[in-house]
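Lab notebook: predicted structure, single chain.

Context: the supervisor wants predicted structures on file for every construct in the current expression panel, including those that have not yet been purified. This is the next one on the list. No modifications to the sequence; it matches the entry in the shared construct table.
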Amino acid sequence: MLERHIAAWRAGEKNFTLRYHWAPWREISPQLPIALIASEDQKFPFHHGFDVQAIQDALDEADEGERLRGASTISQQTAKNLFLWSGRSFVRKGLEAYFTVLLEITWPKRRILEVYMNIAEFGDGIYGADAAARTFFREAPAQLDAYQSALLASVLPNPKKLHADRPSPYVLRHAEWTQRQVRQLGGVGYLPR
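Prediction complete. Output recorded below exactly as produced.
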């Protein structure tokens, strides 16, 4: 959030407004965390911060000439968003791994997910479930339904270009896929306790 605020100031974005308000787990619809897990990290309840298979798959695809894609878990994204800066470097990745291990050994999975939902950027300058629910759907985060939650999860790859309130065909397809994944995982019963 600080990084984005400084970038807006440096770019002379006089109308930039940072929107953020912490919402505890109990004030967020259970549809959002399961949508995030289904969309971003289906092994979240079971891994210890790193999805080794996803990392290997991404490296194999890069070796075959495909664009290097991310294989970060929710734990890694939480560590990066909480402590680090954007960008790609070995130094940042090393620090991200360090902080991921710290989060995994000190916090339960539910706490990692709660923090992630509160610091993820869901739109340009819109951070956390509360700000996203109120900005895009004019609702409290507890009122988010499964479809709205899937839309929010679908914009996370690029929240400055993808919009939950004006979804592109890509966002609509990804939201439908996310909802199918939620059903296959067993719905909110899949959430960590």
